[in-house]
Amino acid sequence: MTGDTHRPHTGRRRNEAARQAILDVAVELLGSAGDGPVTIDTIAAAAGVGKQTIYRWWPSKGAVLLEALAGRAGADIPVPDTGSLRADLEAFLRATFRAAGNPHTASALRHTMAEAQRDPHAREPMRDFLASRRRVLRGLLERARDRGEIASGADLDLIVDQAYGVLWIRILNGHARLGEAEATALAGSLAGQARG
Amino acid sequence: MTGDTHRPHTGRRRNEAARQAILDVAVELLGSAGDGPVTIDTIAAAAGVGKQTIYRWWPSKGAVLLEALAGRAGADIPVPDTGSLRADLEAFLRATFRAAGNPHTASALRHTMAEAQRDPHAREPMRDFLASRRRVLRGLLERARDRGEIASGADLDLIVDQAYGVLWIRILNGHARLGEAEATALAGSLAGQARG
DNA sequence: AGTTGTCGAGACTTTCTGTCTCGTCAATAC
DNA sequence: GTATTGACGAGACAGAAAGTCTCGACAACT
Fold this sequence. Notes:
Chains A, B: One of its GO terms (molecular function) is transcription cis-regulatory region binding. The structure is a homodimer. By secondary structure, chain A is mainly alpha-helical. In chain A, 70% of the residues lie in helices and 0% in strands. Chain A has 2 domains: 10-62, Homeodomain-like (Arc Repressor Mutant, subunit A), CATH 1.10.10; 72-194, Tetracycline Repressor, domain 2, CATH 1.10.357. Chain A has helices spanning 16-31, 40-47, 51-57, 61-72, 85-101, 103-118, 120-146, 156-173, 180-195. In chain A, helix 1 (16-31) packs across helix 2 (40-47) and helix 5 packs antiparallel against helix 9 (180-195).
């Protein structure tokens, strides 16, 4: 990720402060844009930046939004390793659901997922982002499997998708709450399912 | 649903053939629009209809797409009632995953879900559509609970969301297959979870 | 001092949504 | 049987937003 150009690179250097300001503003707008859409002009204006500066470094709006999201979401989610599947699952899902239940975060997730459906440049970053989140949960399950708490033939990816599936469908459709109580119930279900 | 106006209603009547043509074309375009977006002009042109005819009967593009989707999806999904939770779940999820795994249907579902995130007029129809699908699965679970196959205190809505959550996150993110094998595995997991 | 490439700013093009207008046509009222 | 009413197809129009292009200014390297 750290830029090491092989050529000496003449000319003015990229303004990292502007780059960070763009991402900061994108996260901010994504979180507080329940009503209107997040536009490039709004981002540029709020970041004190020209539009071309954005398009010089990202191929599309969706790419900016995805990088902004990936830089934040998941930052505050611990990776528990207590030695108990049930306890690990509960801690992880409670933290995850609490974060995703926050209206700002939920708004950001909704907007970015919608953007990823229409912007090809956002599809792969979104896949990468979700893959990184899934990987953490899968690692937790693998440790439980190594301890013998999960049958060795169990489909861990299916368990992972059940957990994040509940999260995403509730964020996108908003038909049910997404809080710690739901996380605890889900942890119990999944742990029981894995055991059987 | 059948229109019974109280006033005699003078003037030319609504063209039901045009209405149906619009919905047919919308479904068709939703399924085959992997690349570009589905636009109002395209729908109007393909249906041989003026744009205003669309906006006279639907408040927005999203409303058209949602009504088109709701009219088709779920039409071919049986509601099994074999007396066995495991068998019912497997039959239902296999049919559901097979339908959703079809590229045309998957494309339609992705587009509509994205549209529902940005178009307020599409949010409620989408909620209604998903609620109707969830209701079928929940009914299946309730029958199993009445038979004693599921603990009476179990959170049926959570089980429902685990099933549809897997479906939606895989449709939207495309990181894993969505076929009958996956449906069978999921049915086994959920049935085992409910039993415990 | 000259070259190169970024900077903020903003005009511009393109695409799409949703509105408005027009002349036409069908169903009811008189 | 003619007038009224309102939907019809067609398409011009306005507004929003993405993404491109150009400008003069500025910073880093030769």
